[in-house]
Structures are given as structure tokens and as C-alpha cells.
Write a structure and sequence with these properties.
Layout lengths: L1 E9 L3 E4 L5 E11 L6 E7 L1 H4 L8 E12 L6 E11 L1
Antiparallel strand pairs: 1-3, 1-5, 2-3, 3-4, 5-6
Amino acid sequence: MEIQGIVKEIGAVETNQSQDGHSFDRRKVLIETVEEYPQSLSLTLKGDLATNFSAKDGQLIKAYLKFRTYENKDHTARFNDIIAWRIDL
């Protein structure tokens, strides 16, 4: 899925550890979609995309998205995540 939006807030790069002990970089970016009824979306950028993200606040971007759903270990809660796998400036 692709979506266009205006960058509203750019989070800092965070280094996290996966369950298998590997580290990876992650950054959250808040955008407001460009459509008749704008929506705010929080995107997760991972790896090189997180560290090389060069857009500025107020800049129009096109993001290519995929959606993931996770369950916790007890299977009592589910978490949805929107992940941007490519960004065009």
C-alpha cells in the first residue's frame, strides 16, 4: 500500500534488541495524510531506512507500507504495527 503525507514529527533513532539478541535501529515518524479527510499515522522505520531518513518537518513524502499484527507471549493481547519499507521524498 502506498500513501502520501506531510511529516509532522520525527522521532530519534533508537537501538533495540530482538528476542534472538540481534540489535536493530528503529525510528517513529508521524505523518498527516494528504486526502479529503486527513488522518494522522505513526510509521515505524527500521534498519537503514531509520538511520538514513532525511525528510524534514512539513515535507511531503510517499510511504510504502505493510501492516503487521503481533501477539504477546500469553496470547492475551494483539498489537498492530504500520511499517514503512520504502520512502520517496
